[in-house]
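TOKENISE THE FOLD
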Amino acid sequence: MRHIALAAASAAALVAMPATGQDAFPVTLDHFYGETVIDAEAERIVTLSWMAQDTVLALGEVPIAIQSQTWGGDENGYLPWVKEAVEDLGADLPLALDTANGLPFEQILELEPDLILAPYSGLSQDDYDRLSAIAPTVAFKEAPWTGSWQYVVETVGAAMGRSEEAAGLVASTQDGIARYAADNPQFAGRTFAFGGGSDAGNVGFYIPSDPRVHLMEDLGLVPAEALNDLPTDNYVQQVSFEQLDTVDAEIFIAWYSSQDDLDTLMANPLFARWKPIANDRFVPLIDRAFVMALSAPSPLSIPWMMDRFVPMLAETLEQ
């Protein structure tokens, strides 16, 4: 695998890598499906997880293949900050694997990877077993589609034998977020809910353990109390329009697939009467790449979107 230092002026990375030695191999990582032993530094990494490819790139490596991002990516499935990071490394884009109809196991086998990373994913036991027969595979820690971006960075760093560099990435990224929070003290203590889409009778809310919610907390916001009472069997939970008033939030942040979807929702009188909507403290997000940056925060996507998102949030709270 190519190992090229990140360009000092890279707008995509915005993180200075410390020069450190490698961790000692073998490395053993525990996860939901057991433990994975990585005997030596990987040279051919495949990522099948949100945020994982970002971390590999931020650590100066280019995976041989990544999961294609059809929602938010370009026509070839690449997210903009991923493309920028690869360009900054002076490398070719990795293969974008089409996973829309399931994992392409035969294609992955032909790539001859020596490490497969999926620490924030929905791998099933069968998926994990089949991938592990190809190469050491790292799955999620506690449940599908759960885990903080910090956990992803630390896990990927450990798998690559670069724990110290990963810790530096986490610290530098958190410092950047903290500066935004310090520059906007009006965020502190304001209650919020983060949602995603809606159907005919419900609004989806992300539970407090979701990375989207954690990122807003890092800016100083506080999840609405009612979110703590939602079931935790899924990272997004539905609340009916009739029950929206039970979610006492000052501000509502949510993504929508299209302007038509948003217009339909705004026409619903129950939604329109809900406090954050009635008070014009609503941050609707339609740009899919931007939504993905917030949904899958990482050392690459966070700096990519913060200069745009923070002013939107500040303006909304001034209403």
Notes: Confidence is low (pLDDT under 50) at residues 1-19.
